[in-house]
Design brief:
alpha/beta; eight-stranded parallel barrel
């Protein structure tokens, strides 16, 4: 199976896990099995989530563990496989915190994720919701959630607090040839930034050009203001050389085949101006997504990890169908 238009297509390991467990050699063999099966289909790279460890973790030890994992992949004949990473910030590692010490912790954490992205190798894109902590909704002193104007006003000093962190992070990433691609995620999951324009607005305030944005087709359908606004935001990102990653994902975050992905937007607006890899992103019904994303659909069973389920597609069948769908939808008219 050939990738569409000669462009690299990556596959998200959210199908299998949210934690590579790089110090677990036995689980490493499971990962190698998935990598080999998917590269044989035609995938050229993979996006992996870098799991957050408890406060006080030794980041150097984390990096060393991922160096070991990459060597294990290489020994298994996967030296040509590329990787990008998915990173989120947390309540502990919060670059928008009003407290200087906490922002320094967040910077150290984010720099470790840049380093892990570099050692895994490949297209070296660090993507994800790593500006404001993922899923941490602010509350008033009375425990009431903030929404609408109050939420937007609350975010303003947070954005200002994060500027110095991201300027320093941008220099660090640029020196290691890692692209930063902040992903806006829909407001059902996390506070702003929820839209491409909000990420670009933040990046415009930085005294460094390195940062960029991820465009995710699922987020476009569920959160963006509409086709005209998206076209303007996309043109702005391209003009500023900030379109660093594109995720192809269905609105229900499930199978790509026969989904509500806005293929015309992908083919007519994104494909002509975007030069990086496409990432096929499917969230499987595995921990921790079952509860965090309120999964009602059945799990795509994972060969080598789950027992086959009659009448339910395997993870590999879903991945193969997604690649074929992407190839068909982005092919040039005859």
């Amino acid at each position: 199976m050939n990738p569409p238009s000669g462009r690299d297509v990556f596959f998200s390991f959210f199908m299998f896990t949210a934690d590579l467990r790089p110090e677990d050699a036995r689980y490493g063999q499971t990962l190698i099995g998935h990598l080999k099966a998917l590269t044989e289909m035609g995938y050229r790279g993979f996006d992996v989530h870098i799991a957050t460890q408890p406060p006080g973790v030794d980041h150097k030890r984390e990096i060393d563990a991922y160096i070991g994992l990459r060597k294990a992949f290489d020994r298994a004949g996967l030296s040509g496989v590329k990787f990008t990473t998915n990173v989120g910030t947390t309540r502990t590692f919060d670059p928008t915190s009003p407290y200087e010490e906490q922002r320094r912790q967040a910077l150290s954490y984010l720099e470790s994720r840049v380093e892990i992205t570099r050692v895994l190798g490949g297209d070296s894109i660090m993507s994800g919701p790593f500006l404001y902590p993922y899923g941490v909704f602010p509350l008033t002193d009375d425990g009431e959630p903030l929404w609408s104007d109050a939420l937007q006003d609350w975010m303003e000093p947070r954005y200002r607090a994060a500027r110095a962190v991201f300027e320093e992070l941008s220099e660090y990433a640029e020196a290691r040839e890692v692209k930063l691609a902040i992903e806006p995620v829909k407001s059902w999951e996390t506070p702003p930034p929820n839209m491409v324009a909000e990420v670009l607005d933040f990046l415009d305030t930085l005294d460094h050009p390195q940062g960029g944005v991820t465009v995710d087709t699922a987020q476009l359908v569920m959160e963006s203001r509409g086709p005209s606004a998206f076209s303007a935001d996309l043109a702005r990102a391209v003009r500023q050389n900030r379109l660093h990653y594109v995720h192809i994902s269905a609105p229900d975050r499930g199978a790509v085949r026969d989904s509500w992905i806005p293929w015309q937007v992908v083919r007519d607006e994104i494909d002509p101006v975007y030069r990086g890899p496409y990432l096929v992103e499917v969230f499987n019904a595995i921990p921790p997504f079952v509860s965090s994303m309120r999964m009602a659909r059945r799990r795509f069973w994972r060969p080598g990890e789950d027992d086959p389920v009659p009448g339910v597609d395997s993870a590999y069948q879903v991945a193969a169908a997604a690649l074929e769908e992407l190839r068909e939808r982005t092919a040039s008219p005859a």
